[in-house]
C-alpha cells in the first residue's frame, strides 16, 4: 500500500466533491418538496388519495436505484418524442437524468418517513388547532409537519446519508463525481486499492459531517441546553439567533 | 519436404526426438466457448470457432493429438497454472499483466479496433478500409493520426472503461475531445445511437454488430482500422511458464501456418477479413 | 424478447443465490459484530465500531469496486502469482461485509432491548451463560430484530444489482446486455424492474407470515 498515492488520489478526487454534493443536495431538496404533500396524501384516510402514493413508494422502494437510473437514462432516450422535443435538452445531459432518478427515489423513501411522523402526531393537537379556527393547510404546514419532522429527524438523517452514498451511481452514467473520478483514476494508475480507499475516506468524511449536522439540529430542536464543553459555539449560535 | 524439415526442427529443439517419433504428444487446450466468432458452442455442445479450427490445424502440424475443453474465463488462467490443461486458445490478448503469470506463443491472430462516428457531423472523409499499426509510428502514420485529431477536436467520444481503447483514446484525443467512460459496450453504443456522444473507439466486431443493428444506420466507421500499441501484439496461446517445449512447438506451427496462408484462410472464414499476424 | 427469457431466468437464479449466500454469512457476521460491540473487552468494541462506522459511511458500489479490483491486486500480491477475483465471489464478499455491518447494529439494538433482568433470572435458575444466550436472549432478539432484518434483506436484494457493474450475470446484467443487443432498453429495464419487484414483494410477504407466527403467544 502506497500512502503517498492515497494522499495524491484524495487531492484529485476532491475535484469530484462539488458534483457529488450538487447531485445529493439538489435531489434531497426536490425529494423533500415532492414528499411533503405526497406524505399527507399517503397518511390520508381516503384510499383514493393514499393508494396512488403507496403504489409510487412501493415500486420505487422495491426496485434497485440502478434500474431506475438506467430506465430514465437509456429508456427515455429510446423514445422518439423525447429525443425530438425540448425534453432532449434535459435528458441528453447525464446530470439531469441522474438528478431525476435520485429525486424520485429519494422522494419515495422520504414520503414513508414523513408519513410515519405525521401519523404519530396526537389527534388532540389537530383538534385544538381546528378549534382556534386555523385552516387545514395551515394546520398541516404549521403544526402537524413541524412536529412530525422533529419525530422522524433521525430517520430523515439516514435518508440524507443514504443519498450521499447513492449518488455514487452517477458514475455509471458517465458522470465524473467522486466515484466516477476514482474509476477513471484506477484505469490510469492501475492502483485500485489506493484510489478506492481514498474515495472511501472522502465519502466517510461527508457522511460523518452529515450525521454530525443532524445530531446538532436534533439537539437544537429538542430544546435541551447544549453541552457547553462540547459545543460552545452552538450556544453562541443560538444566542445570536 | 517442408513438413519433414519442420518435424526435424521440432524434434531437435525439443531434444526428445526418440520419444516424439514413437508416440504423438497429447495436448489439452482450453477455450471459453461463448465468444463467437473466436470460439463458441454449437447446439450439440461441441466447441467450434476460429480458435478451435486453428488449434486442430496447429496440432496437426506439430504431430500432436489435441482435445479442446471449455473453461469459464474467470478461472481460465489459474486452471492452466495448476495443470488442468496444457494451453489456452480463447482469443486471449497478449498483455504484460498476463505475462507475469503465464507464457504466450507468438500472436496467432491480430484483431482490429476502429472509430465509429455519427453521420451528418460534417467530418472530412477518411479511408475506413486502411490499416494502421500503432506499435512502430512513422511520419506518415503520425500524419494520419494528426488529421484524425483535428477532425475529432471538440467532439464527445464514448469509450469502454478500463479497456485498451480507453488508453488509446485518452492518449490520442484526450486533449481535444470530451471522453465519457461506459461500463459496457452495449451502453456505449446505445448512447452513440441516441446522440449523447458523437462517436466511439472500440473493437471492430463490437462496432460492426452495432452498425448492422436497427439503430446502426445513424453512424459509420471513421478513420483507419487500428491495432498494436496499447492493444498489444494480438491474441496468443497461453502456456505454462514451466512448459517451454510446448511454446517452441506452437511458435513453429504458427509460423508455418502463417507462412503458407492457413491462418489467413481461417480468419477469412470466421471473421470475414484477413487477421493473420505480421510475417 | 429474442430468447432473453431464459437468460433472465438464469439471472434471477444468480441474484437470489448471491443474496442468499451474502445474507446467511452477513447474519453470522452481524451476530459476531453485536457480540463484539457488547463485549467487556475494549479492543473488540473498538474494532466492531470501526467496522460498522466505515462500512455504513461508504457507498456500497465503492465497497464492491474495492473488493473486485483491489481484491485481485491484494490476492496477487499475497499468493505471488496472478489471481483473478471472480465477480460472483467479489459480490458475495462485499455484500456480506455490508449486510454484516447493518445486521450488527440491528442485533445490538435488539439485544439491548431485552431487559437485563432476563439474563439475571436465567443465570439465577442455574442456566450456563451459553444456555442463557441460546435459550433466552436469541429467541427474543430474533423477534425484535425481524422487521429491521426484513428491510435489510430487501436492501440486499436491490444491492445485488450493483455487482452487474463488475460483470456478474445477474438480472441487471442480463437487462443491460439485452437492452444493448436488442436496442430496446425500455422493455428490458421494465422487465428487470418487474423481476426485482416480484422478489421484494415475495420477501415482504414471507417476512409478514414469519412475523405473525413469531408474534403468536408462546408462553
From TrEMBL, chain A:
Matching Pfam families: BPD_transp_1
InterPro entries: AA_ABC_transptr_permease_3TM, ArtM/GltK/GlnP/TcyL/YhdX-like, MetI-like, MetI-like_sf
One of the record's GO cellular component terms: ATP-binding cassette (ABC) transporter complex
CDD domains listed in its UniProt record: TM_PBP2
GO-annotated biological processes: amino acid transport
Locations listed in the record: Cell inner membrane; Cell membrane
Chief place where the protein resides: membrane
Stored Gene3D superfamilies: MetI-like
Keywords of the record: Cell inner membrane, Cell membrane, Membrane, Transmembrane, Transmembrane helix, Transport
Domain of life of the source: Bacteria
TM helices/strands, residue ranges: 12-41, 53-74, 193-214
Residue ranges constituting the ABC transmembrane type-1 domain according to the UniProt record: 17-214
Record's bilayer topology term: Multi-pass membrane protein
Single annotated GO MF: transmembrane transporter activity
NCBIfam families the record matches: HEQRo_perm_3TM
Family label: Belongs to the binding-protein-dependent transport system permease family. HisMQ subfamily.
Protein name, UniProt field: Nopaline transport system permease protein NocM
Organism whose genome encodes this protein: Ancylobacter defluvii
Source species taxonomy: Bacteria, Pseudomonadati, Pseudomonadota, Alphaproteobacteria, Hyphomicrobiales
UniProtKB/TrEMBL annotation, chain B:
Cross-referenced SUPFAM superfamilies: Periplasmic binding protein-like II (SSF53850)
InterPro entries the UniProt entry points to: Iontro_rcpt_C, Solute-binding_3/MltF_N
Keyword field contains Plastid: no
Matching Pfam families: SBP_bac_3
Domain Ionotropic glutamate receptor C-terminal per the UniProt entry, residue ranges: 26-273
GO MF terms, alphabetically ordered: ligand-gated monoatomic ion channel activity
Signal peptide from the UniProt entry: 1-21
GO cellular component: membrane
All residue ranges annotated as the Solute-binding protein family 3/N-terminal domain in the record: 26-274
Record key words, sorted: Signal
Coiled-coil ranges per UniProt: none
UniProt-listed SMART domains: PBPb, PBPe
Stated name of the protein: Nopaline-binding periplasmic protein
Provenance organism: Ancylobacter defluvii
Primary gene name: nocT
From TrEMBL, chain C:
A matching Pfam family: BPD_transp_1
Domain ABC transmembrane type-1: 12-208
Subcellular location: Cell inner membrane; Cell membrane
Ranges annotated as spanning the membrane: 16-36, 61-82, 88-111, 186-207
Record's bilayer topology term: Multi-pass membrane protein
Keyword presence, Metal-binding: no
InterPro entries: AA_ABC_transptr_permease_3TM, ABC_transp_permease_HisMQ, MetI-like, MetI-like_sf
UniProt GO MF annotations: transmembrane transporter activity
Alphabetical UniProt keywords: Cell inner membrane, Cell membrane, Membrane, Transmembrane, Transmembrane helix, Transport
Gene3D superfamilies per UniProt: MetI-like
GO CC annotation: ATP-binding cassette (ABC) transporter complex
Annotated NCBIfam families: HEQRo_perm_3TM (TIGR01726)
Protein family membership: Belongs to the binding-protein-dependent transport system permease family. HisMQ subfamily.
Protein known as: Nopaline transport system permease protein NocQ
Species of provenance: Ancylobacter defluvii
Gene: nocQ
